[in-house]
Request: fold
Amino acid sequence: MIKKILFILILILINFLIIVIANEEFKNRYLFEKYEYNLEELIKKNDLLKQEQLWGYCFDSNNQIKELAKNLTTIRDIQDWILNFPYDYDQLKNLSTRCQNATTTLAKGKGICSDKSILLCSIFYEKNISCYSVCGTYNGNHCISLIFYNNSWRPILTTGFIDENSINNFMNSLTLIESKTERYFKI
Reply:
């Protein structure tokens, strides 16, 4: 009888630990609630130069993106949706220096981090929220998004690659900050 009680207590403890760990991981994905940045300081700190934005067309939209913007009502909803949007591992084999339109990424049903960042910004644009796609080289090349929320620029993840332990290092390794109308690039 004591063995059964002990076994049940161990199962309860294991379930409790699983829930605690899952909740901690869940909390850490919403970096926009904890971190804020000054866009001008990021541009200056990373030695980025303003260039003519020739790729603003990548931040396009269609009825499907407008519908997503309408149905995803909170920033958490949007971030959860993009984190669950499939990653295109095949595209890693054929990387291009050209951007992929948001509508193309959505039609394909998958994209790499830069594609997901552009798609994410297109959704935020439909909600009249300013957004930039930002790319950095901390621990490899990666892209996330920055949105203007609560009077500050805040990070929105596109994959689980950047976390709370590495966000500041990532933001200090930026090589590109771009929106529909602006582009800052490290030459």
Observations:
- The chain has one domain: 2-185.
- Strands lie at 49-51, 131-136, 142-149, 152-156, 174-178, 183-185.
